[in-house]
Specification:
heterodimer, A: alpha/beta, 5-stranded parallel sheet, 5-stranded antiparallel sheet, 7 helices, 15 strands, 32% helix, elongated, B: alpha+beta, 5-stranded mixed sheet, two-stranded antiparallel ribbon, 10 helices, 7 strands
Chain lengths: 238, 349
């Protein structure tokens, strides 16, 4: 499994590399000193796993994740950061506290390998499918959300509202850019304002002007514009 | 409260016993040949007993009506009225005693001149009692408020006292761990620096002020550890006025400023930067400058992260310790330097 270590401190990176020697299943593809460097390396090396420090000069670890289209598996490494710890506790993201102990690292590696195995069907092409996850942060709360759980993307100014469970955090992206990244077999651009997850569709009704009204599981209703309605019918009728 | 009530009874009983004794001695001295009648002794004992009871009732009345919280302008007439009233009461109360002891002489008892001197005598005694009572209580209350003020101040100070940032401690431990393989000698030194800082921060919690030299050593240890973490990204410079060593400074205060500079300055810069500490003694004042590379953000949108709290604590701490004699400011010195300045007075101990 290809991993990238991202930490601004040389000694911290060195220590983690040394600890990971015990885990041959994790192959360290590279080390980055800051978010900018990491972003380039992620693009190039396409790692499946990040060991990510939160406090770094320039952008923080959270900001790096927010800028990625899809988030690889992530283990946060931090010394002590009240705000970050709170975010982790709320959302049960995996994290390692520095100094990292060998036992705790082994635990984290096992967890990751389990997760990776369960995601063996993950598509290797660049489009984001239901198996992929995205990182979403809203104030102090943050989530890794599997795209399978997101039923709706709604554009709101320069932001996109992401609907999953009972949460609707915002991400700073344009709906057009997102639409290009998403796998069209799973997601459908219903209108200028909405992208829906096809596996969440529960019912379809005819609507005014030749449009459609799609009902999603959970009760959200989304209008499909006339222009997209024909395409939508094609897709759903197979 | 137990002590206070015991003190009252001791003084009340002891005082009136002494009053009785003095009266007896005065009678003996004034009598012909040093012999006095038994009836005179009985009378004096009764008199003291009356006074004892009356002042005790008076005290209860004072407490009940909360005379202690009266303004002085209101209290004085009240006391005068009470004193006169009690004197008249006791003057009248002694008549039946005189009578039953067979000492009663009507012309004497109702002679206006004798009545006035009699009443005035008791008034003087009760007045002295009142003065003692109020002085004691005022003094005690003042003491209590002073103590309260002092403890409030101490609690505030304790809350404001800088504590070592756990983030720093764990990061330092992590760097040291990696350093053990790479440079064992340096890692030993780092452990010494860390333990010296930890020890200092534990000891200083109990102390109000520390010597400048000790604080400077702590800052140097601190920067030594941060240098291990940041390596070439952190450069340090010291420019210390030798006279600074005569000064006492609040413990961990300079360290807090330096840490602030690293947290918000150096650690945000990919290329790192410089932390410079300089001091200057100017007459009775010590001027401490901490400069760091970085940009000063005034109440940026990440208020929690710009450390407004740490600086506000420093400001309040200085105010509590030195009043208006100390000053504190933080400003953007140039596009890429932030200056933090504190000026503290010399405290003669």
């Amino acid at each position: 499994m290809k991993a990238l270590i991202i930490d601004d401190e040389r000694l911290a990176r060195k220590e983690l590399v040394k600890l990971l020697e015990e885990h041959p299943s994790i192959e360290i593809a590279g080390e980055a000193m800051n978010a900018d460097e990491a972003e380039k390396m992620i693009e190039e090396l396409n790692p499946e796993l990040l060991f990510l420090d939160i406090q770094m000069p320039g952008r923080t670890g959270f900001q790096l994740l927010e800028s990625l289209d899809s988030a690889p598996l992530v283990v946060f490494t931090t010394a002590y950061d009240e705000f970050a710890l709170k975010a982790f506790e709320v959302n049960a993201l995996d994290y390692l506290l520095k100094p990292i102990t060998a036992e705790r690292l082994t635990e984290a590696v096992h967890k990751i390998l389990d997760k990776e195995r369960s995601k063996s069907g993950r598509s290797r092409d660049k489009k984001l499918g239901l198996e992929d996850q995205v990182f979403v942060k809203d104030g102090e709360r943050c989530w890794f959300v599997s795209l399978a759980n997101i039923r709706l993307f709604e554009s709101d100014g320069n932001y996109i509202k992401v609907y999953f469970d009972t949460n609707r955090p915002m991400i700073h992206k344009s709906l057009n850019a997102l639409d290009e990244k998403l796998d069209e077999r799973s997601f459908f651009r219903a209108s200028r304002k909405h992208i829906i997850n096809l596996s969440w569709v529960e019912g379809i009704e005819p609507w005014f002007n030749g449009g459609l009204m799609v009902k999603l599981k959970g009760g959200d209703k989304v209008e499909v514009s006339r222009r997209q309605a024909a395409k939508f019918k094609d897709m759903m009728s197979l | 409260m137990v002590n206070k009530s015991r003190l009252y009874w001791t003084l009340q009983i002891g005082g009136w016993t002494a009053f009785c004794a003095v009266q007896l001695i005065a009678s003996v001295v004034a009598s012909v040949g040093g012999a006095i009648a038994v009836t005179r002794v009985v009378f004096l004992v009764f008199e003291a007993l009356f006074c004892f009871l009356l002042t005790h009732l008076y005290r209860n009345y004072i407490n009940e009506r909360k005379w202690l919280s009266m303004s002085l302008a209101k209290l004085i007439p009240h006391v005068f009225a009470a004193v006169v009233l009690m004197s008249v009461v006791i003057y009248l109360a002694r008549i039946p005693v005189y009578y039953s002891l067979g000492l009663f002489v009507a012309e004497n008892a109702f002679d206006p001149e004798k009545m006035i001197t009699g009443v005035l005598f008791y008034a003087l005694i009760f007045f002295i009692w009142s003065v003692l009572h109020f002085i004691y209580n005022y003094f005690e209350r003042y003491n209590k408020s002073l103590k309260l003020e002092a403890s409030v101040k101490e609690i505030e100070l304790n809350n404001l006292k800088s504590q070592l940032n756990p983030h720093f401690i764990f990061n330092a431990l992590n760097s040291i761990r990696a350093l053990v393989d790479e440079n064992p000698a340096k890692s030993k030194e780092a452990i010494n620096q860390l333990s010296s800082i930890l020890r200092n921060s534990l000891v200083t919690e109990k102390r109000g002020l520390t010597s400048f030299d000790e604080e400077l050593k702590l800052v140097k240890d601190y920067l030594g550890l941060e240098s291990i973490r940041f390596e070439e990204r952190l450069r340090t410079e010291f420019n210390v006025d030798p006279e600074s060593r005569d000064f006492l400074v609040p413990p961990l205060m300079i360290q807090t400023l330096v840490e602030n500079g690293i947290k918000h300055g150096i650690s945000k810069l990919t290329e790192g930067g410089l932390v410079q500490i300089s001091t200057k003694v100017d007459g009775d004042h010590l001027k401490i400058h901490v400069r760091n590379s970085g940009k000063f953000v005034i109440n940026g949108h990440h208020k929690k992260e710009t450390g407004g709290l740490g600086l506000e604590n420093t400001r309040q701490r200085l105010k509590l310790i030195y009043g208006d004699d100390a000053s504190f400011r933080i400003l953007s010195e140039s596009d890429n330097f932030v200056l933090t300045e504190i000026i503290i007075p010399h405290l003669y101990t």
